[in-house]
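Risk register update: the risk of archive-format incompatibility is retired. Evidence:
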Amino acid sequence: MQKSHNGMEIRSKLWIEMDGEPVFGRGRRFLLEAIESHGSINQAAKEVDISFRKAWSHIKAMEERLGIKLVARQAGGKNGGGATLMDDARKFLKKYEALEKGIQALVDKRFRSVFE
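Archived output:
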């Protein structure tokens, strides 16, 4: 993010849609990253401050719209459950991160050219 000489900052949001429905964006990125770090959808949902039900809904929607399995889930029980990201999810996260950085660089450059 760039600041201009008068303290203005540029901010932008990026998300991916399919057929007018959101597929992926920053919030869902944070959810998948939290699942990766905690090994739990429930803990990830708490970290990103959404309900388990909403987290589960986001995961299902992403998987359905992208046509790939993103999260491997193991039901709870005596030893507890868990969740891990599939390789496709890790690859998708890397691609999204590259896209986000590229877009931000373009936005920063344009901001500088217009406002400085």
